[in-house]
Structures are given as structure tokens and as C-alpha cells.
Amino acid sequence: MKAAGAPRGGAQPQRLTRLVATRGWRLSARAALTLAAGAARRAAIGGQAVMEGVMMRGVDNWSVAVRRPDESIYVEAWPLVSYMKRYPVLKLPIVRGVTALVESLVVGVRALTISANQSVGEEGQELTGREIGITLVVAFGFAILLFFLAPLGITRIFRAQLGSGIGFWLVEGLVRVTIFVVYLLIITQFRDLRRVFEYHGAEHKSIHALEHGDELTVANVDKYKTLHLRCGTSFLLIVMVVSILVFAVVRWPVWYLLILSRIVLVPLIAGVSYEIIRLAGKHEANPVVRVVMAPGLALQWMTTKPPSADQIEVAIAALEKVVELEPQSAAADSGVEVMA
């Protein structure tokens, strides 16, 4: 498979691949315990469900594991040089969240391409940098139209009744959250997407096991919940809420600036939201944090489903590959943010 393009700075992507049998694949007990020993100290790993598989991303590497038609597990890993390491200014609060989000989206698109090919047993070409860029622009455009411009347009119909003060911004925010929840309700009805949600649950369970220092076995992983504080579903809900506060400050400029504000302020909203979910992830046991994050966790009942043992095996395969490349006993790079 051809690389999707070399990272800047001259580093060439090194492709690491392997095919592992469904039942015969396991780390030795000693190696697994060694990996688990440092897990509770450092678990800078996030993930994403893909077609018949899971992508896991660490600080310097990412991997994707896919269940192939012959029941084997395909694992592929790539090195990753974060822009936050190249440009220290990107490590600043709020800015680091936007950077982490963009990097996660780029990796996610590449992982989806690999999984789409491997899940049907085919070798395909990787997306070029331009193709990834176009994909992200279209995705961002759709999200801004649906979750930011549409709520503004709907609420503006009732401006005569609401006025231009706090009532307008609250109603616009409620419309935005409603559209988001309805969107989730609709996509969860598609039977073909249910397996993606099951792999999403497997991803969360395996990361929980790593964070708690457990040996990565199906039995250990399966005992954890499918919900996770750092999940992208919770992040998106926080974005909806933070946008109410940000747009309330903007108030009611001329119409074209009002529309423009719903576009240019999205990175700021995303950055602030990331700081909130990052803080929550560091204080997961805090009762106040649990209460504040409860709505996001509740939404995850829609976007995660209980996985099968076979699906958990795939998630473990992806996670162990990243842990193999980034030993959890090593010191964490505090300057690089990982989006869950």
C-alpha cells in the first residue's frame, strides 16, 4: 500500500504491517504485565472506530486493526510527528485543542480508507494529501452548515418574539443541541452503522483497561463500560454548549458578520471545549466533573454499543501495537495532546 504522503520535516512514513490469526495471537503474559504496569501512569492514547476495526493513536504513532473476511486481524502502524512538536506555539491552551482535533481528523480519514479496503480483503491506494484536505473541508462545511448556520436561520424566524438578547442565544443553543441529538438518533438507526458503534465500545473498553493497568485480555477489557469521558461524542456536546456563551458575547452585529461569526469562531469554540474535556479527563473521579459530564456520557449510550469478543480482540490488537511502539513505562510527552 502506498503511503499517503511524507510528513513535513523530511521524515518518511515507515509502514509497519502484519496479519495475525484470530485465535493464535497473544502477547506473552510477562510482556502484557510489563505493558500494564505503566498504564495507569501514562495512557496518552485515543482512538476511533472504523469499518470493521479500530484506530488507536498515541503521541508518536498510530495504528489501525481491521477484521478481514478470512477472520484474521490486519494491523498497520504509522509514525506520527505532531505539529505541536514542530511549532511550540501550537502547544498554547486552546490552540493545542484545535491542533489536536485537526491531527485526529487527518489520521481518522487515513484509517477509514485503510479499513474500508481491508474489511473487504482488498489492497487499495492511500488518499493523497489533497484528497484528505478536500474530505476534511467538505466535512467541516457540512458540520458548520448543519450545527451552526441552520440553528441561526431557524431561530432568526422568531426574532420578533425573542428579541436580540440572551433569549435569542439560549433558544439558538437549544435548537443546536436538538439538531445534534436528532442527528445522532437518525444515524444510530442505520443497521450498517451498528457494528461501527460496537467497535466504538470496544475502543473505549480497551482504553479503560489500559488506563487502569490491567492486562489486555478480552476478559479484562470486557468488564469495563463502553462510556469514556474523553469521547468525541462528549466533546461535540460541549462544543454545542460553549457556542451559546461565545455567541452571546458576539451579540447581534450586521447580518453578514452574524453569519461570519458562526464560521470563524468555530476554532475558538473547539479549542475551549477541548480544554474542558481535557480537564475532565484528568479529574475523572471528581464528583463535580462526573455531574457536569453526565449529559455527554448519556449521549454515548447512542454512539457506543456492547462489543463482541471478536471485536474486542481487534481493539486490543490496535492498542497493543501503539503500546509496543510507545512503552507506557516511558515518560509522557506533556507537550503533545491526544484527542480521544
Features:
5 strands; disordered N terminus; globular; 340 residues; alpha+beta
Which strand order does the major sheet show? 1-5-4-3-2
Q: Quick check: average pLDDT?
A: 82
**Ends apart, CA distance between termini:** 27 Å
Strand content: 5-15%
Largest sheet: 5 strands, antiparallel
Which ranges are low-confidence, i.e. pLDDT below 50, for 5 or more consecutive residues? 1-42
- Helix percentage range: 55-70%
Structural classification:
alpha+beta
What would you report as the Rg, rounded to the nearest angstrom?
21 Å
**H-E order:** EHEEEEHHHHHHHHHHHH
Topology diagram in text:
Layout: E1 16-20, H1 29-37, E2 46-50, E3 53-57, E4 61-67, E5 73-79, H2 83-86, H3 95-118, H4 129-156, H5 159-162, H6 166-187, H7 191-211, H8 218-222, H9 232-250, H10 255-264, H11 266-282, H12 287-303, H13 309-325
Antiparallel strand pairs: 1-5, 2-3, 3-4, 4-5
Helix pairs in contact: 3-4, 3-11, 4-6, 6-9, 7-13, 9-11, 9-12
